[in-house]
Design a protein that fits this description.
The protein contains five helices and no strands. It is mainly alpha-helical. About 20% of the residues are buried. It is globular and about 40 Å long. Bound molecules: the ligand Cc1ccc(Nc2c(-c3ccc(O)cc3)nc3c(C)cccn23)cc1.
Length: about 110
């Protein structure tokens, strides 16, 4: 189980990512029907998003800070896998990933 202080640190980082100008496409699970991308789940094996990460934090699913960071990174890698390099969402995922990694150094 993650200790309180670490959980607060993760929550603060998650809020930061959600409020970033590049954060909006990652706040909720990708909806392949709504976005008319029927192949999404055949490409992305482990969907992840900030809303799901927030729920996992709340429900004490993460045992370590590394598990939290792995889901954040999964959110970005899924997007950069599914969307081609010059797609706006791919660019946003890369920008937000760079932001996360620069702030995650401690
Ligand atoms: C406010 C908001 C919320 C969600 C989205 N996501 C989204 C995505 C998407 C697909 C894969 C992915 O890894 C990330 C995003 N594709 C779309 C499309 C085609 C239309 C509208 C929304 N779309 C966009 C704006």
């Amino acid at each position: 189980k993650m200790d309180r202080g670490i959980k607060i640190l993760c929550n603060n980082m998650l809020k930061d990512l959600q409020n970033h100008r590049c954060g909006f496409p990652f706040k909720k699970p990708v909806d392949p029907v709504a976005y008319n991308i029927p192949n999404y789940f055949s490409v992305v094996k482990k969907p992840m998003d900030f809303g799901t990460i927030g729920s996992k934090l709340e429900n004490n699913v993460y045992f370590s800070i590394d598990e939290f960071a792995a889901d954040v990174r999964l959110t970005f890698s899924n997007c950069m896998l599914f969307n081609p390099p010059f797609n706006q969402f791919h660019v946003m995922a890369r920008e937000l990933s760079n932001y996360f990694e620069s702030k995650w150094k401690f």
